Amino acid sequence: MDWKLEGSAQKTESHVLQEQEVTLEDTGEDGISESFQLLQIDVECEHREEMTTSNAVWRSKNVQRKQRHWEKIVAAKKSKRRQEKERRKANRVENSGIYPQHSKRFLRSLTKERLLEAKHSGPRLCIDLSMTHHMSKKELSRLAGQIRRLYGSNKKADRPFWICLTGFTTDSPLYEECLRMNDGFSSYLLDITEEDCFSLFPLETLVYLTPDSEHALEDVDLNKVYILGGLVDESIQKKVTFQKAQEHSVKTARLPIQEYMVRRQNGKNYHSEILAINQVFDILSTYFETQNWPEALKKGVSSRKGYILQNSVE
């Protein structure tokens, strides 16, 4: 009885072992293949992790290099601003006894006071803008720039003129160009009118400044109104402003360039007395303050015009 049970148990164990062997034989090749695949996946994952780490390190170094470069630029700018601030401070200390320092608000108030005073008691200057309808966009831009520079010079003058822009409409291309190019143009302290300068003032008080006049300007008279033709003409049409003055029987005058300056020899043999309106104004303003024509002409007539002062030759 016991022998039969032992035999039966041995048969059972033998049968189980045989089944396991058959199972291993059936799955041997597939199991090995799967193992290699898992191993390959592990290797690829490790390689990817290494590449990711390497790229991250490279990007990190690149970012750090750019950050260091940017910090150097910022530091250099701060250093430059600090040096400029110290230089201005040193200049203020050096000139404190000569030029008293005032706040910007005080200086603006002083400028406004001078300009308003000129409106009542200063010399008057009209810019005749009635000839701009034939001008190109480029010429209008140049004229707007000249008006800006003229107004800027007048603001800085110790004895400013009162300026009036005549024949000037707010819906004109020039007005739009002045608004575009000149910050704060709408708040300029000057008169703007659509009226013509010849109908705005008595004709006997008007003096049209034109390079084609036969009469040299001798002095700036407070009882006169001086007119500058607001004309930028690249085609160089001659005697436009002179003829306009004659049509209205208005006196004309030219700057005394011929009286105080001489022609300078140059390669192009170029000599011109035609100046931008801001250059003419600089001459008038300087003369009005200094009563010295050579000094005034030197400021407004550049050497490119082909003229130099007589004493420069001597």
Structure description:
There is one protein chain. The chain has a domain at 104-255: Alpha/beta knot, CATH 3.40.1280.30. Residues 1-14 and 19-27 have low confidence and may be disordered. The protein is 58% helix and 10% strand. The protein has helices at 2-95, 104-121, 137-156, 173-181, 197-200, 240-247, 257-260, 277-290, 293-300, 310-313; strands at 124-128, 162-166, 191-192, 206-209, 225-229, 251-253, 261-263, 307-309. Helix 8 (277-290) runs antiparallel to helix 9. Strands 3-2-1-5-4-6 form a six-stranded parallel sheet. It is of the alpha/beta class and 314 residues long. It is elongated, with a radius of gyration of 44 Å. Strand 2, helix 4 and strand 3 (191-192) form a beta-alpha-beta unit. The longest helix is centred in the N-terminal third of the chain and has 94 residues, at 2-95. The chain is built from ten helices and eight strands.
Proportion in helices: 55-70%
Order of helices and strands: HHEHEHEHEEHEHEHHEH
CATH fold-level assignment of one domain? Alpha/beta knot
As laid out across the biggest beta sheet, the strand order is 3-2-1-5-4-6
Work out the helix count: 10
Count of strand segments: 8
CATH architecture of one domain: 3-Layer(aba) Sandwich
Kindly provide the name of the CATH class of one domain.
Alpha Beta
Sum up the overall morphology in one term.
elongated
Largest sheet: 6 strands, parallel
Alpha carbon gap, first and last residue: 153 Å
Sheet/helix structural class: alpha/beta
Low-confidence stretches: 1-14, 19-27
Beta-strand proportion: 5-15%
Radius of gyration, taken over Cα atoms and rounded to an integer in Å: 44 Å
**What is the arithmetic mean of pLDDT?**
80
